[in-house]
What does this fold into?
Amino acid sequence: MVELAVSLTVLMILTAVAIPTLMRSFRTYQLNDAASRLAGTLKFTRFEAVRRNKQINFLIVTAGPAGNDWLVGTDSDGDGSIGTGEKQILINGVVTLLPAGAPPSSTSILAKLGATSSLTTLSGAAATVTFDARGAVSPLAAYIMYLGSTNSPEFGYRAVILLPSGATQIWTAPAGGTWQRIS
It folds into this structure.
């Protein structure tokens, strides 16, 4: 009986130590997954514009009454909405699109990009980005979309950058830290 009690105590201690690490890994995975899916949808929209040789819009719309759920996707048919047959992803749950001001400042991203202009924040509000027939952003501008948790900033942030050429980059930053490019 004593051996069983000692074994259970050791098991509970190891579990108590492991759970925070597992939760942190899971939240990091959720952030990386959402950023990758968002960047992938932007790339799809760009390639769709090139393939069809016409302007195609990428849309960001609210998908829930609380304003924390976002539907992002390709408006392939040009009707101004994301239809059921069009490429789309739902960003909801712990990870959401954040407005500027919630994550760390993007000045370190601009410095590392060598940019002299600013990044236009698309996350946190409904938005549209147009890709021209060449796959470039029209009008030429650089955009940023922030991803993170409104309730748990300790898990960090991700930023998806859309450059004027149509290329995408993913950046990461800890709460209160500086941005580092990850892809």
